[in-house]
Amino acid sequence: MSDILVSEQSAPGPGGSGRPSGRLLEVDDLRVEFRTRDGVAKVINGVTYHVDAGETLAVLGESGSGKSVTAQTIMGILDTPPGFVTGGQVRFHGKDMLRMSDEERRRIRGEGIAMIFQDALSALNPVFTVGFQIAEQFRVRRGMGRAEAKKRAIDMLDQVKIPNAKGRFNNYPHQFSGGMRQRAMIAMSLALDPEVLIADEPTTALDVTVQAQIMDLLAELQRERQMGMILITHDLGVVADVADRIAVMYAGRIVEEADVYELYAKPAHPYTLGLIDSIPRLDEKGQQLRTIKGLPPNLMNIPPGCPFNPRCPMAQPVCREKVPPLLQVGPARASACHFAEELVNRV
Amino acid sequence: MSENILEVNDLVKHYPVTQGVVFKKTVGQVKAVDGVSFGLRAGETLGVVGESGCGKSTLARVLMNLEKPTAGNVVYKGQDISKLSGGALRRLRRQIQLVMQDPYTSLNPRMTVGDLLGEPFEIHPEVAPKGSRRAKVRELLDLVGLNPEHINRYPHQFSGGQRQRIGIARALALRPEIIVCDEPVSALDVSIQAQVMNLLEQLQGEFGLSYVFIAHDLSVVRHLSDRVAVMYLGKIVEIGTEDEIYERPTHPYTQALLSAVPVPDPTQRNNKTIIRLTGDVPSPISPPSGCRFRTRCWKAQDVCAEQVPLLEIRRGSDHPSACHFAEKREIVATHEV
């Protein structure tokens, strides 16, 4: 990689530190707002995370936490308007993608970073066959001929374990079942052998037995290809099974980041703690579920101080005044809570 | 054992598959529900779990008498409800109510909350005389944890969880005995889901409600249910108490389903029994002969293709299971909390 390019491109953006660090993909102090008729919604308010080759970062959050918008910004598919990036950087191999030309970004999509979506039926084009849509990439991006592209596409369908890949090549998306469609989309996103795969709720629309198949498949393909993976989900169960690290998002911020084992054993943010306590578990017979009171904040009117303070059982006056920064609270873990130390050190 | 308040006997619901426009002919049947029997006891929660297409929502519609069964019947306190019509059906509807999955489409966007919750009283004026309806609606809002001051708001002014509370309040308005809940929490975020589940439990205690709780999320069903029925392709494959189903499942499908549920505990990653099913659920238009699960089952023998396994208690098991080779197997290591 060219060092000159890096130094040219990584002039510090507003808020971004701009240091090249040898990471594969880094999001640095990203800020995004949606300007709508009703007002400005601050959807992402300084998100920083990274993913390296071969590791899985899970981005965990509820609806409206900004986890999908972050991914859309990375991919350059944010709807503008209403969405606008107001600060920060997204660096791929140290190079800020937000300052690239459209042509440069296009080259990264598919080959550098690819994405799969929750709803495969609407992500696939209904008027072209599944095979054509995969083969198209080989023809356009790799300059292959029709026959060779078809061979490669069938090979991809085979790799995602679609039975009778050859026969399925000419099927349209609606002829596939939900699980098969998701496999086809995975085949499409991995066709150009990306370094990073962003999976946005890849199994949320699927039944649990199919979900297990798809998660197995993703894990296997990731291992083989040493891809970095960003898994965006709200499901604490799926995360526990596959993630290496977890970033928990709330109201457009990362409120906690930790290794998967530490996060479940000892959450360092009251929101994470509340989430883990409020899910019913298959292996537990229980009484009343503990809940997080109230609702997530309106992003047009985020409360001052810590955005979680109105719902937090630990809230003190300081929480209403000062936004807690995301600080280290141990080796490789960080929390954005004024009382993180106390949470971590409790018995 | 308390008495059954609702009895479902050999219920069948088939939908015709037609071909042609002018000379329409029936070319097949979607066997959505194909011989389902169970009883619901007063004050209990019966969970119904299964994957998409297993017929659980069709079951809800037939229980509510929104669809007439193709065969079999639903008996409420000795009365066959599928034979009722007119005033008798209207009176029955007071006793059995439905909470739907999607709080966004199940509330009329042009009606205020006050109108939405007041409507049941217009249809059943005997429940609340005209002058007392506003007060009743406020009471309902308070009951489900909403601010009674918001009586004049429209559905879009509420969040998903709050709308689901409105849906629950509407189901409660006529003080029914039975509420059929069709995926009531699956559209909600985790932190909100827990609030709504607690509300359902609290209301059950307060009014002695019986729930038929239909869901695909096995953890949610375990938390709320006293008894659980597992459905596959239109049939119940196993039914029993919560402990029986979750701690001692005997049907291979139940076992596979339970093993596939991710447990939110990374330390369990490597010591889980994982049964991976291959393939997809077959089409309900032409389900496999004999046992419907045999095409995906690792235990399948010749007999499974020939004989339909009955839902009955077999040797070595304490609850009904529809498998020729039913055998206890621990999948989920349960602990009390």
Automatic annotation (TrEMBL), chain A:
Topology relative to the membrane: Peripheral membrane protein
Entry keywords, A to Z: ATP-binding, Cell membrane, Membrane, Nucleotide-binding, Transport
The ABC transporter domain, residue ranges: 25-276
Region (Disordered): 1-23
Main location, first listed in the record: membrane
Localization of this protein: Cell membrane
PROSITE patterns associated with the record: ABC_TRANSPORTER_1 (PS00211), ABC_TRANSPORTER_2 (PS50893)
Keyword ATP-binding: yes
Pfam families referenced in this protein's UniProt entry, alphabetically: ABC_tran, oligo_HPY
SMART domains: AAA
GO cellular component, one term: plasma membrane
GO biological process, one term: peptide transport
Gene Ontology MF terms: ATP binding; ATP hydrolysis activity
SUPFAM superfamilies according to UniProt: P-loop containing nucleoside triphosphate hydrolases (SSF52540)
NCBIfam families tied to this protein: oligo_HPY
Family of the protein in this entry: Belongs to the ABC transporter superfamily.
Protein name, per record: Oligopeptide transport ATP-binding protein AmiF
Species in which this protein is naturally found: Micromonospora noduli
TrEMBL record, chain B:
PROSITE patterns: ABC_TRANSPORTER_1, ABC_TRANSPORTER_2
GO biological process terms on file: peptide transport; transmembrane transport
Keyword ATP-binding: yes
UniProt keyword list: ATP-binding, Nucleotide-binding, Transport
Top-rank lineage group of the source organism: Bacteria
Domain ABC transporter: 6-258
Cited InterPro entries: AAA+_ATPase (IPR003593), ABC_transp_ATP-bind (IPR050319), ABC_transporter-like_ATP-bd (IPR003439), ABC_transporter-like_CS (IPR017871), Oligopep_ABC_C (IPR013563), P-loop_NTPase (IPR027417)
A GO term for molecular function: ATP binding
Listed CDD domains: ABC_NikE_OppD_transporters
Pfam families in the cross-refs: ABC_tran (PF00005), oligo_HPY (PF08352)
Family: Belongs to the ABC transporter superfamily.
NCBIfam families: oligo_HPY, PRK11308.1
Protein name listed in UniProt: Oligopeptide transport ATP-binding protein AppF
Organism: Micromonospora saelicesensis
